[in-house]
Amino acid sequence: MRALYTALFLTAAVVACKKTDNKESGKESGKPDPASGTSGTSGTSGTKQLTVGFAQVGAESAWRTAETGSIRAEAEKRKVNLKFSDAQGKQENQITAVRGFIAQGVDAIILAPVVETGWEPVLLEAKQAKIPVVLVDRGIKTSDETLYATLIASDFVAEGKMAAEWMAKKLNGKAAVVELQGTPGSAPAIDRKKGFEEGIKANPNMKIIASQSGDFRRSNGKEVMEALLKKHGKEITAVYAHNDDMALGAIQAIEESGAKPGTDVIVVSVDGVKDAFTAMVEGKLSASVECNPLLGPMAFDAVEKAVAGQTLPKRQVVEDKLFDTTNAKDVIATRQY
Amino acid sequence: MSTTRPDPLHPDPLHKLRAYFAGFPLLWPLVGLAALLLFNVVYHPGFLALEVRDGHLYGTPVDLLHQGAKGILLAIGMTLVIASGGIDLSVGSVMALAGAAAALLAKRADLPLVAVIVLPLLLAAIAGLWNGLLVTRIGIQPIIATLVLMTSGRGLAMLLTGGQNPAFDRSGFIFLGNGHLLGLPFTIYLVAAALTTAGLLLRRTALGLFLESTGDNERASRASGVDARLVKTAVYVVSGVCAGLAGLVATSNIKQADPIRTGEMMELDAIFAVVVGGTALTGGRFTLAGSVVGALLIQTLTQTMFYLGVPPPIAPVPKAIIVLAVCLLQSAGFRRDVVGLVKRPIRR
Amino acid sequence: MSRLSFAATAVVLVLLFGTASWLYPGFLSARVIANLFGDNAALGIAAIGMTFVILSGGIDLSVGAVLAFTSTLVALLVTRHAVPPLLAIALGLAIGAAFGAVMGAMIHRYELPPFLVTLAGMFFARGMAFVLSLESLGISHPFYRSAATFGIPLSAKATLNAPALIFLVLFAAASCLLHATRFGRDVYAVGGHEPSARLLGVAVGKTKIAVYALSGTCSALAGVVATLRMGSGNPAQGTGFELDAIACVVIGGTLLSGGVGSLAGTLNGVLIFGTIQIALVFDGRLNSWWARIVVGALLLLFIVFQKLLARAASRRA
Amino acid sequence: MTRVLLELRDIVKTFGSVKALDRASLTLRAGEIHALMGENGAGKSTLIKVLTGVHAPDAGTIVLDGKPIAPRSPREAEQAGISTVYQEVNLIPTLSIADNLLLGRQPTRLGWIRRRELVRRAEAAVARLGLEIDVTRAVGACPLAIQQMVAIARALDIRARVLVLDEPTSSLDEREVASLFELLRRLRAEGLAIVLVTHFLDQVYAVSDRITVLRNGAFVGEHETSELPRRRLIEAMLGRDFGDEADARPAAAAAATGKRLLEARGIGRRGLLSPIDLALSEGEIVGLAGLLGAGRTETARLLFGLEAADSGAITIGGQAAVLRSPRDAMGKGLAFCSEDRRAEGILPHLSVRENLILAMQAGRGPWRLLPRREQDALVDHYIRALGIKAPSPEAPIHTLSGGNQQKVLLARALATQPKILLLDEPTRGIDVGAKLEIERLVRSLRERGMSVLFISSDLDELVRTCGRVAVLRDRRKVGELAGDDVRPDKILSVIAHEHDAA
What we know:
The structure holds four protein chains of four kinds.
Chain A: H1 2-28, E1 51-56, H2 62-77, E2 81-86, H3 91-104, E3 108-111, H4 120-128, E4 133-136, E5 150-154, H5 156-170, E6 175-181, H6 187-201, E7 206-213, H7 218-232, E8 238-241, H8 244-256, E9 266-271, H9 274-281, E10 287-290, H10 296-307, E11 315-318, E12 322-324, H11 325-332
Parallel strand pairs in A: 1-2, 1-3, 3-4, 4-5, 5-11, 6-7, 6-8, 8-9, 9-10
Antiparallel strand pairs in A: 10-12
Helix pairs in contact in A: 2-10, 3-4, 5-6, 7-8, 9-11
Chain C: H1 2-23, H2 30-39, H3 41-55, H4 63-80, H5 85-109, H6 114-132, E1 137-138, H7 142-149, E2 151-153, E3 159-161, H8 162-180, H9 182-192, H10 194-199, H11 204-230, E4 232-233, H12 241-251, H13 263-283, H14 289-316
Antiparallel strand pairs in C: 1-4, 2-3
Helix pairs in contact in C: 1-13, 2-3, 2-8, 2-13, 3-8, 3-9, 3-11, 3-12, 3-13, 4-5, 4-6, 4-11, 5-6, 5-11, 8-9, 9-11, 12-13, 12-14, 13-14
Chain D: E1 4-15, E2 18-29, E3 33-37, H1 44-51, E4 59-64, E5 67-69, H2 74-80, E6 82-85, H3 97-102, E7 108-109, E8 112-113, H4 115-128, H5 144-157, E9 162-166, H6 174-189, E10 193-197, H7 201-207, E11 210-215, E12 218-224, H8 230-238, H9 243-246, H10 250-253, E13 260-269, E14 273-281, E15 285-289, H11 296-303, E16 311-316, E17 319-321, H12 326-331, E18 334-337, H13 341-344, H14 352-364, H15 372-385, H16 402-415, E19 420-424, H17 432-447, E20 451-455, H18 459-465, E21 468-473, E22 476-482, H19 488-496
Parallel strand pairs in D: 3-10, 3-11, 6-9, 9-10, 15-20, 15-21, 18-19, 19-20
Antiparallel strand pairs in D: 1-2, 1-4, 4-5, 7-8, 11-12, 13-14, 13-16, 16-17, 21-22
C-alpha cells in the first residue's frame, strides 16, 4: 500500500518537473503561456493581463478590510487578475501564500507583512524567480534592500508625532497620558509609540503614566482602560491609542466610569476609520490621525512600473492628515471606510 | 442521620483528608482566589474600592463580575459537559458564531429585539446538539467531536460576516453587555439568572443525580434505567447555549462582531475554571460554585496582569502555574507523596 | 482496519491533488510538491511527535507553544548573545525534550489527564516565549543565510529546501523507530491496553515519558525549522498549531483511543492539509475561512469513516 | 516425591486497612499441577500477584531453587522463570499475535526488530501448543479461546519453570478445556511446575495432583488431591461445616405456586444466545446453572433489555412486552443486578444513598425528585433491612467492602419494588457471611410473592436457593431440573454430558 502510494507521488513529481520545465522555459522566451493564464514577465504596458498575488494579513480590523477593498477594487479597475490570500494574522500562512504565488508564476506580489522580521528567505526566493514584491502599509527589517521593489506606507513615527503635538496644543503642554499600544512587536505599535514620545519631549509636563498593550482590539482596549481607570482614577487627562478600535473601546470604558470623553479625558488615536469620525462628530473622540488604507492605486502603479523593470524609490510615504472635532463633520460624508 | 462514625473499613491516613475534601471541595479554589485578591490589595490598596458614580456601583470588584460574566457562563456549560465525562472545545467558536449572527441581525432594524437575542441562541443550541449527536450517536470521543466544530465554527462565523467585523447600534442589544440595572451591570443579573436556573434544574430535580451517575459510570447508570444518551446529548446543548449567551455578551459589549477574536482561547479558560473549581476531568461529581470561583479566579488573574502592566501575551504563564498547582493538590498521587514525606518519620 | 483507513486517506489525497491540478494550471508542478513539503515541514514534524503520543493513548496540546518558544529562544541566543547557531539549536532541542519529559512524568506519576497537563504546558510555553521576546526577532547569521539558500534541486525551478529535507529525514527515522524497534512496539502496546502492557512486562512509565519527551523534541525541532524557514524567531507563531497537528494525525487514520495508526497515514494527513492551503492560494478568490471549514469537514469525514470501519470490524469478530 | 522447586512462606500483604494476605504459604514441586483453592477474597489472586512481582509482600519469603527471590515486576518474575496467565486474558488486542507473544523479547539486530525471525519464533511457540493460526493476525480479532492459548504460549516461550494459570478455563468451552488440560499434562511431563487457580471443583479433581487451600488470606492446608473428598475441600474453603444450611432446601424447594409472571419463548440473539424458553411464576426462585460463558448472563441481559433480542417473544403478566432498554424492562416491573459490579453496578464516587435510590428515581423520571427526607428514610430502611455496613449513607460507595456494595445494589433493585428480580452472580467475590445473608434475603423475597431469576456458578448455592434450575451449555438451554432433582450432582451431570438432560 505504502509503496504504491510513494511510487504514485514520485511519478507525479517527475511528470510535474517536465511540465513546469518546458513551461518555464517558454516563459523565459517571453511568449504568453495560455496554460497559466499569466503573461510573460516582459509584459511592459498594461496591455497584457497581469497576474498579481496579494498576501494580506487578515481581516482583523475595519482598516484592514478597507485596505483589502481598495486593492481589490483597483485590480478590478485595471483588469488585473488578482490572487488574494488572507493569512488570518499568521506569518506562517503569509509565507506559504507568497511561496504559492511564486510557484504559480505570478507577475508581481503585493505583501502586507504582519511582522517586520522573517521575510528574507521567502523574498530571496521571489527575487530568484524574478518576481517583484511591493510591500504595503508595513515595512520589514532586512539587510538587503533589493529583496523588494518598494514600500508604500504611512510614516508611523510621524503619525505618533502629529498626535502628540495636537494633544500638546489642546492641553497646552500639560497632560497625564494613558497609552494603549498595539500588538506588541508590530511595526505600527513600535513606531507610533516612538513618534509620540518624541512629540511630547518638548513639554516636560506631559507624562505617559501608563502604557499597556490593547492588541489593536476594541475589547482589549476597553478592558485595559477599565483597569487603568481604577488604578489611576481622575489623574488621567488624556488617552493616546495606537488605533481607533482601541480608542473606541477606551471611550466606552471612560463613559462607564462616569467621566466625559472629549472633555474630562481627551482621546486621540490613529487610523481615522469611519467609526472614529462618527465618534469625533459626537465629540467623544477628540482627534484621529488618518492613516490612509486606500493604497490600491499607489500599489498597482508601483506593480506596473516594477513589472516593466523600472526601479522605484525604496520608500513611498503615504501622506497622512490629522482630523479633529472641528473638521470631522465636513469630511465624514466623503469617508469610504 | 448522617452520623460520621469513624470508618471501620477505611481508617487509612488519607481518609480524613479525603472526607474533608469531599465535604468542602471549594477549599482550594477559594484559597487561591483569596490569595490573589490579597496580593492585589497589597500592591494597590484601591483594588477592592467601591464607589457610586452616576448611580452605578463602580470599581474593580464590579469589573471582575462584569468581565468575568463570559467566563462564568462558559464555565457553567463546561461543568455539565465535564461532569458527564466529556469535554467541549467548541465553545469559543460557538461564541464567535452566535456573536456574528447577533451582530448581523442587530443591524437590521426591522427585526424585533427578541429575534436578535433568540435566533443566535438557537443557532448555538443547534451547534451544541450537533456536538452531542456526534458523541452519543456516532460515538466519537468528545475531544475530537468538538474539535470539528472548533476548527470550522470560526470559519462559519467569518462566512456569515464575510470576514468583516460588522458594527451595530441597537440600544436594546447593546444594553445586554453594557447596560446597568439598579446600579449593577446587567451582565451580573444575567449570570445570576443562569446560575440559579442551572442550580435549580440540577439540585431541585433528579437531573443532577442522573448527570453525576452518567459521568461516574455510564453503563451502570444505563442498567439502572437512566437515559444516559439523552443526558449526554443535553449537556452539550446546554453548553452550546451558554456559549451562545457568552458570545452575545461579548459582541454587545464591544458593539461589533469579531469572528476571529471573539472567544479566542476562551474554551481553555473555561476548562481551567472548571478544573480549578474542583470538578475532575474524569466526570461524575461536579460543583457549579467551584467553577464560578474558578472563572473568577482566572478573571482576577487577567485584571492583575492589567494592573501590573504585564503585556497580555505573558499572562498565560501564571495561569498555567496556578492550574497545575491546583490539579496537583487534587491528585491523590501527589497527596500520597506529600503525606508520605510527612509520615515517614513517624512510621515505626 | 488501519490499512483500510490509510488507503482511504491516500485516495483522498490523490483526489484532492488531482482536482487541484486539473482546476489550477501550474499546480501539478515539482515546485508545488517541493513547497508542499517545505511549507508544512514544521507541521509535519510536530505531527510525527503527535502520532507517537496519540498512539500511546495520550495527547499533546503544547506543540504549537513549544515551537514558538524554541524558535524565539534560538533567535534570541543567536542574535542577542552571539551563541553559535548549532549550539543554540541543540540547546533548544534539549529544552524541548526536557519539557516534554516533565509533562510525561506528571501524567504518569500523578495520573493527571494528559489533556490538562499539556494544556497547562501550552499556556506556560507560550507565555515564556513572549517573556523571551515580545516581538519577532530576525536572525542575521551566515549559517542561516546559507541555510536559507541550501536545498536539493528537483528541477530547474524547484528545490527541496532545508525544512523539507529535515522533515523527510525525520519521517524516515521516526518510521523505523515506530515500526522496527521494541520501543515502537511498546508504544503501540501501551496505547492498545495499558494494564495488559504492564503485565506483559512493558515499562509503561518509561514508555509514556519517552513518548512525551519525543513529542517535545519534535515540537522543538519544528521551531528550529521555523527559524530556518523565516530566518527569524516569532513568539506569536503556531497558535492553534496543535489542533492542526492533531487533525493531520486523525485524518491520517490514527485512532485517538490509541494503539492503532501509522506514520505514513500522518504524512498523508499533513499533505492533505497542505494541499488544501496551497489550492486556496492558487485559486486566490476563495476566502481563507474556507480552509477552516474544509479541514473541519474532512476531519469529520475521516472520523466517521473510521467509526464505521471499527463497527464493521467488531461485527466480524 | 520430586524436589521442592518454589516455596512461598508466610506471605503478608495489606492494602490500606484490608489484610489481603495473612501468612499465606504455597509449596510447589517440579512436575506437578498444583491447584490453589479458596473462596473469593481468600487471597488467591493476591498471592499470585505477589509471586509474579505485581505486588511487593509486606512480609514473608519466596524461595526458588533454594535461592530467595524478590521479583519487583512481572518482567523480573519472568526472567526468574515464573510466568503467568491472568484471569482476564492480558494481551494487546490491537497488536498481532506474534507481537504479543514476543513483546519486549523481540529478536533484534542492532536494535532493529528482525521481522522474519519474529514470525518464525511466534509460529514455533504456537505450534508447541498444537495450534495452527496466522500469527500476524491481530489478537483482538481472535476468539477468546485462542487468545487464552496465545497467552499460555507467551508464558511458556520464556524458559518458564513455573507456570501460573489464574482462572484459565473461565472463558473456555468443554473441548477447549479438555485440550488445555491435555496441554498441561504434557507440560507437567516436561517437568514444569504448574499452579492452577480455578473455581471449578471438577476441573481441580480432573487435572491437579495436589491442592493448597487458602482462607481469609491464610494458609489452611495442603493435600494430595486423591486423598481429599470434595466435601472436605469445600468445608476447608468455607471454613465451617455448612452441612445443615447447605442441604436445607425444603423451604425453597416448594415448586411454583402462584401464577405465571414472565414467559419468554425462543428469545435469543445471534452470536449471543441461541433461542431459549424460560418461565417465571409468582413466588418462585428459578436458578440458571452453567459454566461461565454458557449464556446465563446473556439470558438475563436479554430479559432486561440490555441486549435487544432478535428472536422470540416475552409476555409479562399475560401481555406481550417489547424490551428495548432497561427503562422498558423496569416499566414492566423487572429489576436487575449485574454480575459485573464494577463495570455495570456501582457508581464508585457517589454516595451509598445516591447509589441506592438511582434506579427508583430513574423510574420516577427527572422532574419528581424524591424529597430528601424520604430518601434518607428509604436508605435507612434498607441499610437496616440488609445489614449494610457503611460509615454513613453519604460515604462514597467505593469505600465499602464488596459484600456491602453488593447489598446496596440489591437494595437499589428492591427499591424499585419489582415483581421480577434478575440476579446475576449476586454472591460473587464476597465473603461467606454476606453470601449466606444474601441467599437468606433472596429466599425471603419469594415469600413476598416476588419471582427471582438466580444466576450462580456455585451449585450448592443454587440448590440451597432455587425451586427450579434451568441449565445452559454453549449458549443454549440443555435442561431443567425441579423438585428433588435439584441436586449438585444432577446439575453437574447435565452441565457435563449431553444425554441425561432432563
